[in-house]
Specification:
The protein has 137 residues and is mainly beta. The chain is built from one helix and seven strands; from the N terminus they run H-E-E-E-E-E-E-E. A four-stranded antiparallel sheet has the order 1-2-7-6, with no helix packed on it. The protein has a three-stranded antiparallel sheet with strand order 3-4-5. The two termini are 41 Å apart.
């Protein structure tokens, strides 16, 4: 029996990239830091919230690369000589990725109370009905 991959299904024409997107998403799912929430604000609006306590806005970088939202955080080195008796607050660098569907764009980002909120909006295209003429040969 031959395994038919998702992108090669005969009824899914032009969806070859979908399988690659699923694989890329599976790889990023193993990341555990920082913790995050995803919520549906409305039918076409979403919010991703990452817990980034201790990070300032200049320590964070948000980009969209090839339909992938990438959030990176790197805290500046502590210039003062501090002696920690216990250090339980994570200060490590991170990269967290989210694959965006076509038509989903970042509307805004805000940092408040140690939470980074990234608002996403899906643009809904107008329904287009197209009649295809049949050539006579």
């Amino acid at each position: 029996m031959t395994k038919l991959s998702f992108g090669a299904h005969p009824h899914l024409l032009g969806f070859e990239q979908l399988e690659r997107l699923v694989e890329r998403t599976a790889k990023t799912a193993a990341e555990g830091y920082p913790p995050f929430n995803i919520e549906a604000v409305s039918e076409n609006e979403y919010r991703i919230t990452l817990a980034v306590a201790g990070f300032r806005d200049e320590d964070l970088n948000i980009t969209v690369e090839n339909r992938q939202l990438v959030v990176r955080g790197r805290q500046a080195e502590d210039e003062g000589e501090r002696l920690f008796l216990h250090r339980g607050i994570a200060a490590r660098a991170f990269q967290r990725s989210f694959v965006l569907a076509e038509g989903v764009e970042v509307a805004r980002a805000a940092l408040e109370h140690g939470l980074l909120h990234i608002d996403l909006r899906r643009s809904v295209p107008d329904v287009i009905v197209q009649t295809i003429p049949i050539d006579r040969r």
